[in-house]
Structures are given as C-alpha cells and as structure tokens.
Design a protein that fits this description.
The protein is α/β, with parallel strands linked by helices. The chain folds into two domains: 4-65 and 388-437, Urease, subunit C, domain 1 (Roll), CATH 2.30.40; 67-373, Alpha-Beta Barrel (TIM Barrel), CATH 3.20.20.140. Helices cover 36% and strands 22% of the residues. It has helices spanning 43-49, 98-103, 107-122, 138-148, 166-169, 176-181, 186-197, 221-234, 246-256, 260-266, 284-293, 301-306, 317-322, 341-352, 361-365, 368-373, 410-415, 442-461, and strands spanning 4-16, 24-33, 36-42, 50-57, 62-65, 67-73, 126-131, 151-154, 207-209, 211-215, 238-242, 274-278, 296-299, 327-329, 332-333, 391-394, 421-426, 429-433, 436-437. Strands 1, 2, 3, 4, 5, 16, 17, 18 and 19 form a nine-stranded mixed β-sheet that branches. Strands 9-8-7-6-15 form a five-stranded parallel β-sheet. Strands 10-11-12-13-14 form a five-stranded parallel β-sheet. A hairpin with a 2-residue loop joins strand 2 and strand 3 (36-42). Helix 10 (260-266) crosses helix 11 (284-293). It starts with a strand and ends with a helix. 54% of the residues are buried.
Length: 462
C-alpha cells in the first residue's frame, strides 16, 4: 500500500495523549501535516500508513501534549528567589518591593522578561501560558513571545474600577505607581480588552487576547457585567482572580452584599465561558452554583499554602474536581514558586485533606482541562487527530524518566518538571531541539533579562 507523505513523523515514543479515550501508546507514533495531527496510535499502524519528509525518533522517551499553565504572572519571572521586602517602609535597594518593580516595567524589560518566561516554560514542557492580567506593554510581550515560538494569552493589565475594599485586603499588591499606570477606570479596562481581542483576528497568531478583570472585589457590578458581555460577544473567556483569601471575600461582601460565585450568579456572568482563579474560600451555596453552572476553575495550590489560606478555609477543589468541575492548574507567581510545582503539590495537598486526587489527575489538569478553561480545547490540550500539533518529547536519561505499568500519565503528573525536555513542536514546527531553543539564543535571553532587572531596580530606587 502506498503510504501518504506528511511533514513530520514522531515515532518510537512512549506517547501519552491527554485523551482518556485513547490515553497511551507504547511504542506510539504521530503523523503531522500543515501543523495539524493527522494520525496517532501504535507505531506499526501509523508507520504503515504514513511516511514523512522529517522523522523524529523519540528514542523511547515520554511524548505528550504541551503543558498549559493557566495562571502565571511573567513580571515575577526574573525575581525567583528574591528576598522582597515584607513592607513598603522596609523597601530599598537590598530588599525591593515587588509591587513597585512590576509597576516600573518598560517595553524593553517586558520583552526581556517574556523571552525569559518562554525559555523557562519550554524547557519544562509547557507550550502555552496564560498571563493573568499584569503586563502593561502587551505589544512588546506579544512580539517577544512570538519570536520564541511559544503560545500565550494576554489581556488588559489590572482591570479594576473600585479599589476601596481591595487595597485594604491586599495592601501589599497596590501602590501609587501601580495605580498611576493602571487607573481605576472602567473605560480604560474595556477599551484595552477590546484592543487585546483584536489579536484574535489572526487565528494562527501565537498570542491571543481574552477579557480579564483583576477581580477580588476590585470591579463594580457594572464593569463586571460589561466585561463578561464583551467576552461573550467576542467568543473568548471572561477571567478574574476570585476568593483568594478570607479577608478579600469579607471586603467584597461588605461592598457589594455578596461575593464570589453568588455575586457572579446574581450578575448573570457565572457559566462555562467564565474562568475563575484560586477559589480558595467557598461556602456550600457556591459549591452548588459551581457544579450547576460549571465555570472553569484554576487552582494554585502553592499560593494557597504559602498564604496559609488552607488553615483558615476548607479547600473544596478536590471535591469539585471529583464531582465534575473543570479544574486546571497555575503556578501564579514565579517569584516564590518554581514552574511545574503545582501538579505535585495538588496531589500532596489533596492527600493531606483526606480527599485524594487520582495520581494522574494533574497531568490532565495541565493539558485538556487547561485548554477547556481557556476556551481552546478544540485546538490544543491533547494529542488528537485534527488538533494543532503541540508536542513535547522528553529525554530518557535514567530509570525515573520511564513509565511502567502506567496508561494514565502518573509519571507526567508527578515528575514532569524534573524530566528534561529534548524536543518541542508547536504547530508542528520545531521550537526546541536537544534542549535548546532554535529561533533565539538562550544565553542572550538570560543575560538581557538580568540586565533589565538591574535597570529597573535603579529606576525605582536610584
């Protein structure tokens, strides 16, 4: 039989698809044409039907859909491990204040930080990340991300029009410099969201726009409803931080009479096109609403632990996941938490609560669930015929890099951030080979991010 010619064949892989209907092929193969997966399955079957201009031998390594981080602030990327001041009064050159540093960015700094984020994420098997509404220079961000070849989503920075409760609950997140750059103004927010959504006119663009409010009670009812309507009319998701800490929930209730899912239901914006980050503080009425209305939920277990929210409020996220809610994962701030940690922490935290996740759940939370929560599961999130070919191939260096008796992706849930990445394909194009980015120089990226970090420090503190 004459074999069809495709652009790329990945073969000899330990393939975990992210699609539970056909979750695992070992050895497996993937055929790719015009950036789309046209076949995948057992290697003998695929190889008998297809030949390719380029053949990639996975050498028995893990092959999986690119991971997706659904809540990440790239302005924190260069500050990982930095001993930030705990108070504004104590801020200075030796211990800078993070809220001032993120407010002081320039186009050059954002470009450098975005490239650094892309490099770090690709090296850990992520092919898409969701910038959660904190980048000012969005064009510089998009240009830099596109050059690196990774996917991202971006929206208006600091979408708020009422800080009366927020600045009391989260004083460490607000300062005069930040408010000058992100005025408390609904019109600014809506117009910038419209600007970012214009990116979606090119469906092939690696950077896409969405509608984001900062959340945590920082938007009036009117702005919340207008933003959600814009999202619906534009066929994108409506997203915000929500119910992170008990103090924030109390402030929102004081200002608006209700909070969280109950308030969003009253406003008519709770549904499958809404995705909410954190949701650490919930009551039984909200649990019922979430299970019936089915908004997406992004869990950042490391943030919940770091701010000791779990000791003050029961964590309902494992229960919600088990009962059909779509839960994805995000690392939140890279200043304190390493990329990839949220998967294994979700397992440990759920176990400590006596409400264990399945061992493979974090793999799906970072692939197909993540894509669903971003409204793009028809395009990415699993290795499925007809979807974009975003494929990660891991190295096989030692025994802990090999799966055994595992058809569900347990190893990828537990240790993905520890298993080196060899090759990354996005839209079927090689973005990384042999652990190195192709289109940009990783050493130059790190050097420029470090240089911009010093420039910003001097700009803020002299």
């Amino acid at each position: 039989m004459l074999r069809q010619i495709v652009d790329t064949l990945v073969f000899n892989g330990d393939v975990f698809t992210g699609d539970k209907a056909q979750s695992h092929h070992q050895p497996g193969a993937i055929a790719i044409k015009d950036g789309v997966i046209v076949a995948l399955g057992p290697e003998p079957e695929v190889m008998s039907m297809y030949d390719a201009r380029r053949r990639i031998d996975a050498r028995g390594g893990l092959v999986h859909p690119g991971f997706i981080d659904t809540h990440l602030h790239i302005t924190a990327m260069p500050y990982h491990g930095t001993p930030f001041s705990k108070s504004l009064d104590g801020a200075g050159k030796r211990r800078p204040d993070y809220s001032r540093m993120k407010a002081a960015t320039t186009a050059e700094a954002t470009s450098a930080y975005a490239a650094a984020a892309a490099c770090s994420l690709l090296q850990r098997g992520y092919t898409l990340f969701f910038e959660a509404g904190t980048v000012f220079e969005t064009d510089a961000f998009a240009d830099s991300i596109t050059k690196c070849g990774i996917r991202a989503m971006v929206s208006a920075p600091f979408g708020w029009d009422d800080l009366s409760g927020f600045e009391k609950s989260y004083p460490h997140l607000v300062n005069e410099m930040l408010v000058r750059r992100a005025p408390v103004d609904a019109r600014r927010v809506i117009e910038q969201c419209k600007y970012e959504i214009e990116r979606n006119k090119n469906p092939e663009a690696l950077v896409q726009g969405y509608v984001c409010l900062y959340g945590e009670g920082s938007a009036t009812d009117d702005l919340t409803q207008e933003a959600a309507k814009l999202a619906r009319d534009s066929n994108v998701i409506f997203y915000q931080h929500q119910s992170f800490h008990p103090d924030g929930v109390r402030a929102e209730k004081k200002n608006y009479g209700d909070a969280g899912a109950v308030r969003l239901e009253r406003l008519g914006v709770l549904g499958t096109s809404t995705t909410l980050a954190h949701m650490n503080v919930l009551d039984e009425a909200e649990i019922e609403l979430i299970l019936s209305r089915k908004p997406g939920i992004v869990w950042c277990p490391n943030a919940a632990l770091a701010f000791r929210v779990i000791s003050q409020s029961k964590c309902w996220l494992p229960f919600l996941h088990r009962n059909g809610a779509c839960i994805s994962l995000g690392v939140d701030t890279i200043a304190t938490d390493p990329i990839g940690i949220s998967g294994v922490l979700s397992l440990y935290l759920s176990a400590s609560l006596g409400d264990n996740l399945e061992d493979s759940d974090p793999f799906y939370m970072q692939t197909i669930n993540a894509a669903r929560n971003l409204g793009i599961s028809d395009k990415v999130g699993s290795l499925t015929v007809g979807k974009r070919a975003d494929v990660v191939i891991r190295e096989l260096r030692d025994i802990t890099h090999t799966s055994w008796l595992d058809d569900d992706g347990i190893l990828l849930a537990l240790s993905s951030s520890m298993i080196p990445v060899d090759t990354v394909l996005i839209d079927g194009k090689s973005v990384m080979e042999k652990g190195q980015l192709i289109s940009v120089d990783q050493n130059d990226i790190v050097a420029e991010a470090r240089r911009q970090r010093e420039i910003l420090l001097k700009r803020v503190y002299g």
